[in-house]
């Protein structure tokens, strides 16, 4: 029998029992809608994580002073004093895949403005740090290279620190104290929010690296170097080049441990990305279960339908329907049922996603992939759960079937 | 107007030269119903030639329905052979059997067995769907078949809107639409009043006149006498097989019958 005639027969059979058809379809509708909405939520979360990672800066490589082994005792990370300003300059000069680098170090300190005080981390760095981390100054300006060479007492505040010390008033030009030293506030950073690991990136004060080293910590080595690669793919090459350069500079023999760590933030991003993918998968599988339940509903109704139409099957076989003809007839009914359910489910799922976006304000991505997958999956459900009833129909003994009342 | 069933000694009409369209050789049929074993056919030999009109009679349980199912390729003999147009049907696979039912055989049942909530035309079109004919030809054949049984005006009627006689005509049209060589009718008049029954017999006689081989199962002797040959079954065996000396002519019978309001 040709496709059009088969489809027509299937649609007619389904329209004979409208209520039953709708209720059966509902299982698939809910299943598909749930898959689309849940995948949407998952992918929205994934996008959010990716945005957060992007907010840490582009193509970042984080070089930190490593642990050192002294007479069998491992000291903690950052314990070595071998990472220096010269290393940083060498990285920029000798590694072609590196576009910029900024030194870093820091200490916890109490920051005071008039009667307000706040315990935060004071970071020493150079002006290009903000560019490397893709961090804009909201008010005022960054400190300058001049400030660095003069070890000037100037500070750029993170948004959290600004909020806690100044509230809504403008801090630029005001003088704060870090420990016992007075610092003039030259700028305030834009709020960056939480990092991918959950730390508040805005809770910090930035001062010239020289000021930090000379006046606050008294250390002349670096705790870390923030490096920016020319591109994200290049960051992997940069990572290994920096490693070999520093091993060379620090005269580490083959077989000896590094006295520094080079971490590519692309790796961190990948990890976070994987985690949110797992979440998406989890949500989708839970929704997928409801699709399977819907499929069982189809199977149930198709079995009822086969029994009800035993006589019809007998007639069809008697006038020349082959087993395949009968099987195709019932299979096409269940596939039409599940595809109609799938199509309705897509509409409902998209609508649900839009409503969730409106109500909860969380971003939801409706991916075409999820829709295509939903259609394919609901068709597969129709075939899978329709196969057994259809086969049962095709195997009926025509003589018995014709006698069936 | 009725011819009494003839004695077994009646001389059969001279055999025609044509090969038999149906040939049954030593057929037995057993049904295993768990504890009891039913021996439905106990050694049947039967030959039917093209153009014959055979009535099969017998009480219920005599084996005539079993034979009918077998002739219709819905059932297979337990032992023995059934040759349809010279082909041993028991050797064929299910698909070939379906094809034979579709193209070589036409079925007419006692209960009409039309699809409910379907128009006359769609019912008649059904076998052409399974024959995979193109749409235009399907419709044309279905219309023609309905015209042939005098229902050309009612093609779009749903089967539930038709009288019993009209429903049986639809069933006959459906049986004929693929131009089969044999028409198998199982108690086709069982649910019909006597005038409608004769009308159906007239259609059968006309079709037979045009060369269609008809096998008719009935338990009514006067219906059987519209056929050319009567085969009587009892206890799974053929008890009588004879030519009808004076075949009832449906057209004549109808003339002598009062018209109904139908």
Structural descriptors:
heterodimer, A: 405 residues, 2 domains, six-stranded mixed barrel, two-stranded antiparallel sheet, 13 helices, 57% helix, B: 262 residues, alpha/beta, Rossmann fold, four-stranded antiparallel sheet, 10 strands, 25% strand, disordered N terminus
At a glance:
In chain A, 57% of the residues lie in helices and 18% in strands. Chain A has 405 residues and is α+β, with helices and mostly antiparallel strands.
> Beta-sheet strand percentage of chain B?
15-25%
Mean pLDDT of chain A: 86
Oligomer: heterodimer
The tally of structural domains of chain A comes to 2
Walkthrough of the structure:
The complex is a heterodimer of chains A (405) and B (262). Chain A is α+β, with helices and mostly antiparallel strands. Chain A folds into two domains: 3-52 and 271-403, no CATH class; 81-258, no CATH class. Chain A is built from 13 helices and twelve strands. Chain A has a six-stranded mixed β-barrel with strand order 4-5-10-7-9-8, surrounded by four helices. In chain A, strands 2-3 form a two-stranded antiparallel sheet. In chain A, helix 2 (18-55) runs antiparallel to helix 12 (368-394), helix 9 (265-308) packs parallel to helix 12 and helix 11 (323-360) runs antiparallel to helix 12. The two termini of chain A are 27 Å apart. The relative contact order of chain A is 0.19. Chain B is α/β, with parallel strands linked by helices and 262 residues long. Chain B has one domain: 3-Layer(aba) Sandwich (Rossmann fold). Helices cover 31% and strands 25% of the residues of chain B. Chain B has eight helices and ten strands. A six-stranded mixed β-sheet of chain B has the order 6-7-8-3-9-10, sandwiched between helices. In chain B, strands 2-1-4-5 form a four-stranded antiparallel β-sheet, with helices on one face. In chain B, helix 3 packs across helix 4, helix 4 (135-148) packs across helix 5 (164-176) and helix 5 (164-176) runs parallel beside helix 6. The longest helix of chain B is centred in the C-terminal third of the chain and has 16 residues, at 194-209. Chain B starts with 21 loop residues before the first strand and ends in a 7-residue tail after the last helix. Mean pLDDT of chain B is 87; it is low at 1-16. The chains are: A alpha+beta (405), B alpha/beta (262).
